[in-house]
Amino acid sequence: MPKLIDLSQDVFQHATHEETRPRFEGGFSFQTLGFMLNDNGPTHVDSFSHLDPDPDAQTIDQMSLDLFFGPAICIDVSEVPPKTDITSDHLEKALANSGLELNRGDMLFLYTATFDRYRGTNAYLSEFPGLGSSGAEWIVEKGVKTFGVDSPTPDNPVSTTYPCHMMCRREHITHYENLNLSEVVNTRFTFAGFPLKVIGAHGGPTRAVAIVGD
Q1: Which runs of consecutive H residues, i.e. helices, occur in the chain?
Q2: β-pairing, 44-46 with 203-205?
Q3: What burial class does residue 160 get, using C-beta atoms within 10 Å of its C-beta: 0-12 exposed, 13-18 middle, 19+ buried?
Q4: Chain Cα centroid distance, residue 93
Q5: How far apart are CA 43 and CA 98, in angstroms?
Q6: Which of these, 39, 73, 147, 209, has the minimum number of CB atoms within 10 Å of its CB?
Q7: What's the rounded Cα separation, in Å, for the pair 195 and 184?
Q8: Which residue range is the domain that position 105 belongs to?
Q9: How far apart are CA 95 and CA 73, in angstroms?
Q10: Alpha carbon of 187 to those of 45, 51, 90, 99: distances in Å?
Q11: DSSP-derived secondary structure letter, 20
């Protein structure tokens, strides 16, 4: 049987059994999940309308399901310092170190270790590297279908031009943000990350899963 690995970050509960039990007699309690969900907030995939102001750009419900499923690899770029560009050279080195092949049409995930290092802290929002121009163009040259990161954005957080998002706009390539990739570093797997079908949404909150093995 294949192994299923959850790549999603947590969404927290609103009410727990411990909190509701004192309201009742006889042992009854309940728990609920109440939250206001930003379509680009938790683990999610960007829609083309999020990236592109063109009124005809596709919202998440209009995008092909094929973009959210397929063969994938994860490579380790965690040595790149925060607030610097991940370059094509960094990606070539990480790919070589992984011992994996990146085939045209594969999905690619970049382990920056941001979630592992800074989960639950303000540093998570700023202390990470991001794809610069050469790194973004490397993704195009390699024929990557869809990609993703374990940080809030694939761009360098200090960038004012966001070359990675601009590449995605131009090439109609989308990406996942806020993943948890620690268990799939330097691994080939099948990725499944179908977004919620919210009509007109500019991103899709996702339960992302890696399917490893036969």
Answers
A1: 17-20, 48-51, 88-98, 114-118, 133-141, 163-171
A2: antiparallel
A3: exposed
A4: 21
A5: 25
A6: 209
A7: 20
A8: 3-212
A9: 9
A10: 21, 29, 18, 9
A11: H
CATH value at residue 148 = 3.50.30.50
- What residues pair up with 75 in beta bridges, in sequence order? 110
Amino acid at 186: N
pLDDT per position as a tens digit, 103-162: 999 999 999 999 999 998 999 999 999 999 999 999 999 999 999 999 999 999 999 999
CA atoms of 55 and 51, how far apart (whole Å) = 11
Q: Which two tokens stand for residue 87?
A: 């370059």
- Indicate the residue type of 112: T
Which of 65, 146, 64 is closest to 108 using CA atoms? 146
Backbone phi, then psi, for 213, in 5-degree steps?
A: 95, 180
Asked whether the beta carbons of 111 and 181 are under 8 A apart, the reply is yes
Total number of domains constituting the chain: 1
- 200-212 confidence digits (pLDDT tens): 999 999 999 999 9
Q: What is the pLDDT of residues 29-60, one digit of tens each?
A: 877 766 667 888 889 999 999 999 999 999 99
- Specify which residues 45 forms β-bridges with: 176, 204
CA distance 124 to 33: 24
* Burial (0-12, 13-18, 19+ Cβ within 10 Å), 146: buried
pTM for this structure?
A: 0.89
For the chain, give the number of residues: 214
